[in-house]
Amino acid sequence: MDSNASEDSLRVTRPEPLRLRSGGKGCIKTLGKPGLAQPLAKISRDTDIEKLTQKLLPADGGPGAWKFLFAASMIEAFILGLPLNYGVFQNYYFEHEPFRGDKNLATVGTLGTCFVLLGAPIATPIIERYPRWHREFIWLGWVVAMAGLASASFAQGTTTLIATQGFIYGVGVLIMYYPIIRMLNEWFILRRGLALGIFSAASGISGLGMPFALEALLIRYGWRITLRITAIFLIFSCGPLIPLFRNRLPMNHQAKGARTDYSFLKKSQFYLFSFATLLQGLGMYFPMIYLPSYASSLRLDPIVGAALLAVPSLSQIIGQVGFGFVSDLRVKNLFMDRRMPVHILAFISTFTAGICVFTLWGLARSLPTLVMFSFMFGIFGGGYVVLWARMGTTLSDDPTVALATFSVNSAMRGIGNVLAGPTSAALITSEVVPNEYAIGKFKGVVIYTGSCMIASSSTMVIWGIGRRILRKAKAKGEFCGCPA
What we know:
Strand content: under 5%
Number of helices: 17
Low-confidence stretches: 1-50, 480-484
Mean pLDDT: 80
Shape: globular
Distance between the termini: 68 Å
Strand order of the largest sheet: 1-2
Helix content: 55-70%
């Protein structure tokens, strides 16, 4: 045997050194002879996943999940719920110096409620970019909101009030809100709808008592002391809860700079969901604005108007928890084995709310009818917001997509909130005609509100019919690649 043959034989029989070699793209590593060793990278990844699963706290239950939901609901009830009760402050401001008669006072409440909605598309990419700082964002938002509320007590005019109780407080709420929503998506997966329903209903619970407490404080101490007492209460009631906010995923497994998968923008249902939410938002706020005036036009006691606003606060608790619970249920029958389709729930919510507007509100001539309308509209109109979670999971299982779609729906609702004021001015007439529909004066508002709700439900019908047609076409092979 010559020397070359001897060297070739040695190359074949001698084992390679103990080292990892790259297998190119995909990083497949081998040990010893190529093709004979196990894919160590795959084993490593599987082991990491198994270890991560063992370390994760349980989702959809357990002390960690319920502590988080309790803390989130308290923040929603008090800090996020305060702007929803701004009407109590506005009535007092309008009658007292240095704000007496100032028509710009409504801007304070608009900023406080709309910032958290319209600012969503700006806030959510930042939240996703820095997942390690979610709790720090909540701390920052809490400090900013408390600073805005406390500094409002030193205002000398409406402009300062707009800048503090409106702008600064609104920015603080915006910074707090979306890290909480992002964490909620981690802690609750199969029961996400129920969790969002409980979280959203918290503001309704606070709405039952907060207006009366604020009214009593304003009458006894005036607006400056009331703002300071409110700030102190929020500091000591909500501040100690912030340490309960923690991510379910360990920090070393949180994707640094996670990027949203925007492929959902190619899906038609995303645009239908967004358009439906816009239409629903355009009509959602009119009953809350005009029910007291409607009651006054029927010559009912002024306190009845305030009580009518408390009824939806109670019934929306039922609606939000109920719709959230149902959205998580799996339907098992001869035709399906899956969760209740979200477009069916959205249709039920908006269509029933629209029918209530056209019948109960439009034909109301007495207090019992108005109370019934307030109760029903709170259930079905207020329950719609908790369906945003399932709208996101319908588009993708990616939690970043769930937050992105939630933020878009928030912005659509915010647009409706902003447009409610100027739109209503063109719909109201000055004359009350008792025998006419909606007593004449509110005819335009009732027709507009009901039409928005029915139009929103119509988009769900379009989506349901369209999806069924595409499925049949796909089954027959007439159309390939269509989404299910």
